[in-house]
Amino acid sequence: MRLKLAAGNWKMNGTTAALSELTQLRSIDATGIDVTIATPATLIHRAVAIAGGVQIAGQDCHANVSGAHTGDTSADMLADAGATAVILGHSERRADYGETDADVAAKTNAAWGAELTAIVCVGETLDERETGATLSVVATQLTGSVPDGASGETLVIAYEPVWAIGTGKVPTLEQIAEVHDFIRAELTNRFGAETADAIRLLYGGSVKPSNATEIFATSNVDGALVGGASLKADDFSGIISALAAA
Ligand code: PGA
Fold first, then answer.
1. Closest CA relative to residue 90, chosen from 59, 52, 67, 50
2. Are 162 and 126 in contact (CB under 8 A)?
3. pTM of the model
């Protein structure tokens, strides 16, 4: 049985005032599901102090434990601040910083070294979707970004089509099901059915309260990674409620 997961990604949004959104989320009934918010690193420590049952995550980490890497944050530092998970390989990091699958795999190993759950993101660009390359792109990203030794506790996969992030465009439910079923099959080939069945698969890209219910009813969707709609407690609580009811 996979525990469903509603994960918010605040990206580079949020100063002290944003913590009041977290305070509001505490009163949402999230019985039977996990809720995680990836705040900016600057807020993690304070967010953990007020988050109640909501878990707090980082949005990236360095592959090394420590050292001369100005401006970077290690997985140990995130864990020390109270984070329990970290988003890795988000398409914005792949695009803005040229992160490769090998970089994401190294960061995932670092996350595991700090006992953080890695939420590894994969997904095709619009061009790749239109040329029929979606499944091969996702397969390559999965193989390259996920190290050996994954488990249901340590790994979550987020399928996020790049063209659906922040655009209001969402794949059809058939397209989501096709990719999620494919990811489950790829994980089964690599890790065996028992491990693959324990790994949660999130859909991400323009998830809102209005489309959450149908997305959560889709094959092999175990929750969502939510950007814009996670910034306001009212919106995110609608998504949490839809997932708890799914
Ligand atoms: P969005 O972002 O919900 O704003 O489309 C999703 C994400 O980037 O994780």
1. 59
2. yes
3. 0.98
Q: What does the pLDDT look like over 180-227, one tens digit per residue?
A: 999 999 999 999 999 999 999 999 999 999 999 999 999 999 999 999
Residues with CB under 6 A from ligand 1: 9, 160, 165-166, 204-207, 225-229
Top CATH class of 4-245 equals: alpha beta
Catalytic residue, from 21, 62, 90, 128: name it. 90
Which amino acid type is present at position 114?
A: A
pLDDT tens digits, residue range 42-70?
999 999 999 999 999 999 999 999 999 99
State how far the Cα of 225 lies from the Cα of 139, in Å rounded to an integer.
20
Indicate if 69 belongs to the active site.
Answer: no
CA-nearest residue for atom 7, ligand 1, is 227
C-alpha 135 to ligand 1 mean position (Å): 20
Active-site hit among 21, 124, 128, 160: 160
- Give residue 164's pLDDT band: very low, low, confident or very high (50, 70, 90): very high
